[in-house]
Write a structure and sequence with these properties.
Length: 190
């Protein structure tokens, strides 16, 4: 075991206890987990999501922790798609952007597991969306984030990326602390 201190042992006296301070673990070869900035489009490095339809775009995407992602300056013309395509979700998965490769993500402060609705309003680039990946996913399990019409399998816009815990360690997701026992919340229609 290596130590940054090579002098004599330091002795601490705590009332009735004596303890020798023998060694300190050196962490200078470890990367401390922290937020990761930025996931961006390879061709347009000042953008995160790049849209194919309905003006989907964002600034470069920030990974806050293993399940929480910030999509800054989100833009999407959610009122413009035909009625049959008003089924746009923030979608995350691995592989080609497709129904079978991804899962719908919650938008923090908008969605809950009991009230999860599609994006049906306009976002003009003035809103930062914070999304929460499903329990079965972390940022290391996915390689794309998309605005996706689930019913008709239409990718409105996306960004691809590849993160590994060795190269980009981010903090673990810590769920919110509940002071009261969980109660059954009724499902609210969108």
């Amino acid at each position: 075991m290596r130590s940054w201190y090579h002098g004599p042992s330091v002795n601490f006296s705590l009332r009735e206890f004596n303890s020798d301070f023998l060694d300190v673990i050196q962490l200078d070869d470890k990367i401390i987990p922290r937020e990761y900035c930025c996931i961006k489009d390879e061709q347009q490095v000042n953008r995160g999501l790049v849209g194919q339809f309905y003006n989907v775009s964002s600034a470069p995407v920030v990974v806050l922790d293993s399940r929480t992602i910030l999509i800054p300056q989100f833009s999407f013309e959610g009122t413009r798609p035909p009625v049959v395509l008003k089924d746009a979700w923030i979608f995350a998965g691995k592989g080609h952007v497709d129904k079978g490769s991804g899962k719908q993500s919650l938008i923090v402060a908008k969605d809950t597991p009991q009230h999860h609705c599609p994006l049906t309003k306009d976002y003009s680039g003035n809103t930062d969306l914070k999304i929460l990946l499903p329990r079965q996913q972390t940022v290391y399990d996915i390689n794309y984030i998309s605005v996706f019409c689930y019913e008709y399998a239409v990718d409105f816009g996306h960004v691809y990326f590849d993160l590994s815990p060795q190269d980009v360690p981010v903090p673990p997701y810590i769920p919110p602390i509940q002071n009261e026992p969980s109660t059954v919340i009724p499902i609210i229609p969108c």
